[in-house]
Specification:
Strand order of the largest sheet: 1-2-3-4-5-6-7-8
Helix content: 25-40%
Order of helices and strands: EHEHEHEHEHEHEHEHH
Number of strands: 8
Oligomer: single chain
Length: 223
């Protein structure tokens, strides 16, 4: 029997509206203890989002991490640490010195993940794999809610798993009920989902449906 992996479903909150942010946080508090906030600067990606200042002003009963889709991510770390982030994930493509960003995050007491866009080859990130807590594979072109899922990235995830079996793998982008079973088969550890939860009439129901599909897929793969 294969070793069973404990797969997690993390709601991803993406908005540029502080009022919508509060609404989504209050919804999330009813069905999860942990979320990801997607942060966009209008430079690394075309869209802009809420900021660490918005998060710092919002009381919440959630632990959280930030997915930084921003240029010069090192400039953002102090703010997100101040706002209460437990972890930051930044993009390999967003800085010429990812090692410096990793070191600064560590110095601030943050857990750190490295995200990679769909076009970035696994070979580029392997030298950093053991320097971070997790690797996050984007299955969309980042920066837009509800973007088109790119299934070819799943092959890269499995390639990375073979090369680095002990590193936590996350996946983010375009995941919904129709493709989540396919995603589970890659051996992923953490699945981040935004619109398939928060665009539903009842986000809690969407979350629990996806969670059931993850468990079904995990049982069939691990048995």
């Amino acid at each position: 029997m294969k070793k069973r992996r404990r797969r997690r479903l993390v709601p991803a909150i993406l908005t540029d509206d502080p009022k919508a942010l509060e609404r989504m946080v209050r919804q999330a508090e009813t069905f999860t203890a942990y979320v990801q906030f997607d942060i966009m600067d209008g430079q690394f990606v075309p869209s802009r989002s809420i900021t660490w200042e918005d998060l710092a002003k919002l009381p919440m009963n959630l632990s959280w991490e930030a997915h930084l889709m921003v240029q010069h991510p090192a400039d953002y770390l102090h703010g997100f640490r101040q706002a209460g982030a437990q972890k930051v994930t930044f993009h390999y493509e967003a800085t010429s010195s990812p090692q410096e960003t990793i070191s600064l995050a560590r110095d601030l007491g943050l857990r750190v993940g490295l995200a990679v866009n769909p076009e970035t080859p696994v070979s580029a990130i392997l030298p950093l794999a053991n320097e971070v807590d997790s690797m996050l594979f984007l299955t969309v072109h980042p920066g837009f809610y509800g973007s088109q899922f790119i299934p070819e990235v799943l092959d890269k995830m499995m390639e990375f798993r073979r090369a680095c079996p002990g590193v936590e793998i996350g996946v983010d982008g375009g995941i919904k009920e129709s493709n989540i079973a396919q995603v589970v088969q890659t051996g992923v550890d953490v699945i981040y989902v935004g619109s398939a939860i928060f665009s539903q009439p009842q986000p809690s129901e969407g979350f629990h449906r996806l969670l059931s599909l993850i468990r079904e897929g995990s049982s069939s793969q691990d048995s």
